[in-house]
Amino acid sequence: MAFMKKEEVKAYAERYGIDLTGLSWPEQNKLVQGKLEEDGYRISKDGEVLLPLEKQPETKGFQPKISRDLSGVKGVKILLAPEIKPTSVQLIKYDEELGEDLTVEEISYKDEFGMKPIERDLTYGTYRVKGSSGRKVIAQSTIPKENAMVTYEPDKDIVPKVTFAGKTGYIWTHQSYPNIKGLLMDAGMYHKYKHLFSAKEHPENIWYAAGKLLVCNIGMVHYVFDEIEREANAGK
Q1: What is the domain range of residue 117?
Q2: DSSP string covering 48-66
Q3: Phi, psi of 147, deg, nearest 5
Q4: What phi-psi label fits residue 120: left (phi over 0), alpha (psi between -120 and 50 degrees) or beta?
Q5: Do 112 and 179 share a domain, yes or no?
Q6: DSSP string, 145-186
Q7: What is the reported pTM?
Q8: CA angle 177, 178, 179 (to 5 degrees)
Q9: Distance between CA atoms of residues 133 and 116, nearest Å
Q10: What is the DSSP letter of 199?
């Protein structure tokens, strides 16, 4: 079974009114994924929530490639991450399985080399794994103390939108989400328009949401992409 992202499991559980209290991480996934599949969703091998294949009309222009199963879907808003208001202490906890409990023994080279035992130094291989106790190692984890909401509406948005503290923008750059910088680079237009998304020149057009997601002004993005399309059409 593929495992979904923790924030997505929590968000979908809240959406469906599922109580995850006391359930293990695999049990939480199984319960939430089962409900999603009842509603016609599919879960990819990477834990991504996908809509049915029959809802995939062709798209053109700068429509992002989040997943071919979401491309062009009408009237759908996908919650990719929930917003968590800033808090000094996060009370929501969950149990996370880390793997099996291993038994080890410490290795000493004192007898062989006439040297003092090297203790707790993994660089020199001073521990040897003997086996497993068969028990699972469970750790208690917490969700972030704050988090920005990420949503995507395939028939409206160029890339996913980020909302935090009442302010919304498009994702400017990201390691996995489709983003505006990536689209401009793909179109060969990044160097022409990058000054509009410079925090030094235009701080009103770009900012950090929840201190970690770099977000840009939606109106400016649409202005830039409309101009690119007009110039492209004029050159035909």
Answers
A1: 93-142
A2: -EE--GGG-----TT---S
A3: -155, 145
A4: left
A5: no
A6: SSB-EEEE-TTT-SS-EEEETTEEEEEEE-SSS--HHHHHHH
A7: 0.50
A8: 105
A9: 30
A10: T
Q: Which residue has the tokens 């149990």?
A: 95
Residues 217 and 164 in one domain: yes
- Give the Cα separation of 169 and 178 in Å (integer): 14
**Residue ranges with strand state E in the chain:** 42-43, 49-50, 78-81, 93-106, 127-142, 149-152, 161-164, 167-173, 206-209, 213-216
Q: Which of 10, 11, 150 is nearest to 94 (CA)?
A: 10
Residue (of 210, 207, 231, 211) closest to 220 by Cα position: 207
pLDDT digits (tens, 9 = 90+) for 22-80: 889 888 988 888 888 887 777 777 777 765 444 333 334 444 444 445 555 667 788 88
Within this chain, do residues 153 and 203 fall inside the same structural domain, yes or no? yes
Please report which helix (H) or strand (E) contains residue 110, including its range. Answer: helix 110-113
pLDDT tens per residue, range 104-118: 676 655 555 555 544
Residues 134 and 80 in one domain: no
Q: Dihedral sign for Cα 91, 25, 149, 183, please.
A: positive
Out of 76, 110, 142, a domain closes at: 142
**Same domain for 82 and 135:** no
162 and 65 together in one domain: yes
Q: Are residues 68 and 167 in the same domain?
A: yes
Q: Give the residue from 167, 165, 174 showing the smallest Cα distance to 213.
A: 174
Q: What is the DSSP letter of 16?
A: H
CB–CB of 72/56 below 8 Å? yes
> Is 218 in a helix, a strand, or coil?
helix
